[in-house]
Amino acid sequence: MTDRAKVWGVHLLVLAALFAAQFLLPSYHVTNLARIMVLAVFAMGYNIAFGYTGLLSLGHALFFAAGMYGMGLPVWHLEWLSLPALIAGLLAGGAMAGVVGLLALRTAGVSFMIVTLMFAQAGYLTLLYLNSWTGGDEGFVVARSGRVLLGFDLATDTPRFMAAFVLFAAGLLLCLWLVRSPFGRVMVAMRENEERSRMLGYDPFRVKLTALILSGLYAGAAGAAYGMLFGYVGATFATIQYSILPMLYVLLGGAGTVLGPFLGALLMFYLIDITSGYTDAYLFVVGAALVGLVLFAPKGILGTLRERALRWLP
Amino acid sequence: MSFGPFLLLAVLEGTVMAAVLALTAVGLSLVFGVMRVVNVAHGEFYMLGAVLAWFITYYLPFPPALAWLAALIIAPLIVAMIAALADTLVLKRLNYDPEATIVATIGLLYMLQQAALTFYGSDARPVVAPFQWRIQLPWFGYSGYKLFVVLAAVVILAAVWLFMTRTKVGLVMRATQVDRDTAQAFGINVDRVYAGTFALGGALAAAAAVLIVPIQQAHYLMGHDPLLLSFIVVIIGGLGSIRGTLVAALVIGLSDGVISMFFSPTLAKIIATLLVALVLVFRPQGLFGARA
Amino acid sequence: MAAVIEAKGLTRHFGGLRAVDGVDFSLEHGEIHGLIGPNGAGKTTFVSLLSGRIPVQSGVITLNGEDITHLPAHLRVRKGVAYTFQITSVYPRLSVFDNVALAAQSRGAADVPAEVARALAQVGLTGLDLSIAGTLSYGHQRLLEVAMGLALRPSVLILDEPTQGLASGEIDGFKALIRSLVPQTTILLIEHNMDVVMDLADRITVLNFGQVLAVGTPDEIRRNRAVQDAYLGGDHAAG
Q1: Whole-model pTM?
Q2: Residue B7: CB atoms within 10 Å
Q3: Are B284 and A111 in contact (CB < 8 Å)?
Q4: Domain locations in chain A?
Q5: CA distance to A62, A175, B37, C131, per residue, from A244 (Å)
Q6: Is residue C101 part of a domain?
């Protein structure tokens, strides 16, 4: 089998298995899986910036929240329907990433991390400050009219799962195509050696900004979908915690691998779900996972697997 | 109350805030200066100091003043040990890679927070102040303890200053800051210097918390704001520069105290965080030194 | 012959150090031009100014008559000025194919795989496409670096110490390669190995203390007393 066939085979198989899961699993897990798929889209976006382009951001919660409020606010204040609201959320994520990128990408490394962290913090505080518009700390429930997409009621199990699945499948295939495209190669080149890439004729600022905007579009789409599928928009989703989560998923699953973000989200979600049955020390699990990963497995599960055995894995 | 006394009150509150902030931020600044590590768990060292102070004053059968004094000594020592342990077990093994250490200290943050939640609980609890007298001004009475906090912070900072400039250990730390490799070549045990610096940074945050905990209550999430404010202070003051950190702490502490009295504290924080981001973007050379 | 690149009064000081100090220089179309000088003479700084890696303090650089003094480095590459690094600077974790493909696709090559194959064949690395660049021998990494330069199909190729670390057999192959590139490509060659320069170059510019000491054919440079005093005597014996 050629590498190309293997690559498509594996990814389509994962999608088929997920599609089948809704008929095989009990409803509790189907809802979980819908949540995981949306969070995985967020993490895929994070992976485009961090895993492939080398941009370690601590501010992705801002893009996720931009998508969520970009969808939720028009539904609340302007009584938009779900489809335009969803698109507004997607674009809001990309636009926010563009604005942040224009400034933050003048820095690199540790400065970039702190600048993105500060912008995200300012965004979170702004949501609190404008509480008459945003609902502040308490957030708001997404109106019923904003949760009916193309005639399907997203508050019910099957349409919700299918909507999450379609978004996830589109995100996954797009990501697969992107990282195997010429531009994907340039993103990796930027991560590996920026100065060399410049002397091959690439503008580092433009490449990184494009990658960050793509990343923001993913985060925006995920944020909008999360608000719409689960019916709630709130400032918690703009806290630093939601910048750390996608980083954790990506580090666990494998930075710079297409399936890594999903695998990381799946494992982390159930790790927390299962441990919370025994103890409520879920923060400890997150913390220990972060420390353990940077110490012992900085390449994550699929990154290690690729290094050891499956060199063709994108 | 008319405007003048109101402003005086704001300035007094701001000074207390600045004093505690200076202690916390100098700890963060020292760690970045010597080790080039951005310690995201710094706020948790502060929180641990406050929580430990509660445990110590609650369980020691001493009068309040003595119990609090014991906390001021014991809590920073325990936090210093935890910090040294974290350095040896985690940061050292990452070879102090800047990005990996940030991720690791984020992990540390969550672990410490959870530890506090599990063993201390989610309640906010007060610590009895070592003494209770108030200073009666013509317009209002003011807590004598708060003024004592300012004094204590100045004394501790002066001690740190003397330690860094007048002792051999301080000299070794500064040598390591300037050039790690050369220091190593001259036989300085860099590992020990780093562990010691990290411990000292943690101890300073803990000491600040013990000072503040009779005024604010101990809570497992209380490390968030000091972390953010310390970041702001250290970046605006110039990372690694202790003098810059002190000046910035005074400016930020005072203005935060004054602005918060007259405007929404949320708005003040928004402006401060944006300011930090823009300073890093447009004036990095003065802030990250030659490295950025 | 017309000048491809022309520099007038090019200057760059670092603090008190006059790394490049008022250099006039012209690279004629289709020539192999050697750039030599003792260590610290300003050679690397000078080509860094030409390629845009370091901003110019004063002076003017033109490319085919167009002022490119303040053009960013990546746009100069797009205009056909390629630079290969002195310290090997391939992407060690990417495959040989990806390394060269990054160069080929940068100028919008229609058939990237064919371009990669062609560039690898030129430097004699055919068949190593799928190797990870970092696992190649040092000599092969130098050749890969040159292949990346070639895949850009530049009109001017600046080679910074290309033969450093090559075995003598590899050097002969390298000289043949460079000769095969002209006159379509103009070559600017910084080289320590005097035999290589004297053998390959049509003209040589000698830099000393950031200034031009002499320009001429290899024979003229050999005979030039100032050059001998400043440089050739000691260094030639050593090199």
Answers
A1: 0.86
A2: 14
A3: yes
A4: 3-237
A5: 12, 21, 19, 36
A6: yes
Is residue B218 left, alpha or beta, with left meaning phi > 0 and alpha meaning psi from -120 to 50?
beta
Phi–psi pair at B130, nearest 5 degrees: -65, -30
Q: Is there a contact between B285 and B292 (Cβ–Cβ < 8 Å)?
A: yes
| A9 in reach of chain B (CB within 8 A) | no
Going by the DSSP 8-state scheme, the letter that residue B91 receives in this structure is I
Strands C156-160 and C186-190: parallel
What are the C-alpha distances in Å from A135 to residues A127, B52, B186, B270?
A: 8, 37, 60, 18
As a whole number of angstroms, the distance between CA C11 and CA A137 comes to 59
Residue B284: predicted pLDDT: 63
Q: How far apart are CA C52 and CA A224, in angstroms?
A: 44
Q: Has residue B268 been placed in a domain?
A: no
Three-state DSSP class for B125?
strand
User: Does residue B278 lie within any of the structural domains?
Assistant: no
Q: Which residues of C touch A192 (CB under 8 A)?
A: 91-94
* Residues within 8 A of A (CB atoms), C 76-115 only: 77-78, 82-83, 85, 89-94, 98, 101-103, 105-107, 112
Residue by residue, DSSP assigns chain C as --EEEEEEEEEEEETTEEEEEEEEEEEETT-EEEEE-STTSSHHHHHHHHHTSS--SEEEEEETTEE-TT--HHHHHHTTEEEE-SS----TTSBHHHHHHHHHHHTT-S-HHHHHHHHHHHHT-TT-TTSBGGGS-HHHHHHHHHHHHHHT--SEEEEESTTTT--HHHHHHHHHHHHHHTTTSEEEEE-S-HHHHHHH-SEEEEEETTEEEEEE-HHHHHH-HHHIIIIIHHHHHH-
Beta carbons within 8 Å of B261's beta carbon, 6+ residues apart = B6, B9, B10, B13
* The pLDDT of residue B99: 77
Measure A268 CA to nearest chain C CA, in Å. Answer: 29
| Residues C152, C155, C161: CA angle, nearest 5 degrees | 75
Residue C123, domain member (yes or no)? yes
Q: What is the pLDDT of residue A308?
A: 79
Strongest mean pLDDT among B214-218, C101-105, C181-185: C101-105
Between these two residues, B282 and B49, which has the higher pLDDT value?
B49
Whether residue C51 contacts residue C159, with contact meaning beta carbons closer than 8 Å, is answered with: no
> Cβ(A127)–Cβ(A238) under 8 Å?
yes
Query: Which domain does B145 fall in, by range?
Result: 20-222
Residue C221 included in any domain = no
Reported as type and span, the H/E element at residue B135 is strand B134-136
Q: 3-state DSSP call for residue A143?
A: coil
| Number of domains forming the structure of chain B | 1
In a domain, C189, yes or no: no
| pLDDT number for residue B291 | 38
How many A×B Cβ pairs under 8 Å?
117
pLDDT higher than 70, residue C120 = yes
pLDDT in tens, C45-64: 999 999 998 999 999 999 99
Looking at every residue in chain B, the average pLDDT score rounds to 85
CB C120 within 8 A of CB C148: no
Amino acid identity of residue B146, one-letter, is K
The answer to the question of residue B283 being in a domain is no
**For chain C, what is the domain count?**
1
Closest to A129 in 3D by CA, of B255, B278, B270: B270
Which residues of chain B are at the A interface, by a Cβ-Cβ cutoff of 8 Å?
Answer: 38, 90, 93-94, 98-100, 102-104, 106-115, 117-118, 228, 231, 235, 264, 266-267, 269-270, 273-274, 276-278, 280-282, 284, 288, 292
Element (H, E) at A312: none
Spatial distance between the Cα atoms of C25 and C8, rounded to a whole number of angstroms: 7
Mutating which of A190, A199, A306 best tests the C interface, going by the most C Cβ atoms within 10 A? A199
The pLDDT of residue B287 is above 50: no
Place of tokens 């108030």: B134
End-to-end C-alpha distance for chain B, whole angstroms: 49
Domain span at residue C107 reads: 92-153
CA-nearest residue to A248 within chain B is B103
